[in-house]
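Example for tutorial group B:
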């Protein structure tokens, strides 16, 4: 399972760091992703990171502002979010998948999920 934390209320332009701690599966064998879901919208992949951390990819909406990282020794994945905007307001989820990195682009491919953490950005 995955346990996400670090969400909260922040003003536009501010920063937050999300963490997601894993247990119960072989962490280093999984590609990890951060998603978000706003009310009435589909769950959106924001960033993903390869098993060793050697490769990352970002949605255009967060590129240059968000950074994904992982520690396989701590079994944790992080999402550093800078220059936050009101449109970043959503519930943020971490996910894990055994799908190969280049194909791990859809929420349906992720078999493990955290419980979600709310991020609210005020204008």
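The residue assignment follows.
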């Amino acid at each position: 399972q995955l346990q996400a934390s670090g969400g909260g209320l922040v003003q536009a332009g501010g920063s937050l760091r999300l963490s997601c701690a894993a247990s119960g599966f072989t962490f280093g064998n999984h590609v990890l992703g951060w998603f978000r879901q706003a009310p009435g919208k589909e769950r959106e992949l924001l960033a993903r990171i390869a098993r060793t951390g050697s490769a990352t990819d970002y949605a255009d909406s967060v590129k240059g502002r968000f950074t994904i990282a992982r520690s396989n020794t701590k079994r944790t994945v992080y999402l550093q979010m800078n220059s936050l905007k009101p449109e970043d307001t959503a519930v943020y989820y971490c996910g894990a998948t055994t799908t190969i990195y280049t194909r791990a682009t859809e929420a349906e491919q992720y078999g493990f999920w955290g419980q979600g953490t709310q991020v609210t950005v005020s204008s």
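The chain is about 0% helix and 50% strand. Compare this with the pattern of hydrophobic and polar residues in the output above.
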